[in-house]
Amino acid sequence: MRPSALERAPKMVGLVTLVAGAALVAAPGPVGSAMGLGDRRSVARTVGVMDLALVPGLLRGRPRWPWMAARAAFSLATATIYRAEARRSDGRREAVGGMYGMLGLTVADVVVALALRNAERA
Fold first, then answer.
1. Which UniProt keywords apply (predicted)?
2. What average pLDDT does this structure show over 27-40?
């Protein structure tokens, strides 16, 4: 990744996280259901609050790599929430897709966190 793209990555992740988190907090029922989190509003709202907690660090934190690492950990935790929903709903496609999507984001977040850390050390 070019340094400029690498530096922009946490900001882009932060903006997406801000939108998703705000939507889940504001309308946990419909947004959570649409995102495959099922009908448990408290679960959707909790995911939204956790997203919003990461936003300041992703957008303005220095260094940013620890925030991307935290995002990776959160993504993995969210994948387990999707897995539980998939089991609860007999493999509902949205929940299974959400689980695999969050696992993919976990990998991407780790890659960016490591690249940022390595760039900082250089």
1. Membrane, Transmembrane, Transmembrane helix
2. 93
Return phi, psi of residue 89, to 5°.
-105, 20
Q: Which two tokens stand for residue 85?
A: 């929903």
- Give φ, ψ of 92 to 5 degrees: -50, 130
Distance between CA 77 and CA 74 in Å, rounded? Answer: 5
Domain ranges of the chain: 3-121
3-state secondary structure 56-109: HHHHHCCCCHHHHHHHHHHHHHHHHHHHHHHHHCCCCHHHHHHHHHHHHHHHHH
| DSSP code, position 8 | H
Q: How confident is the model over 51-62, as pLDDT tens digits?
A: 999 999 999 999
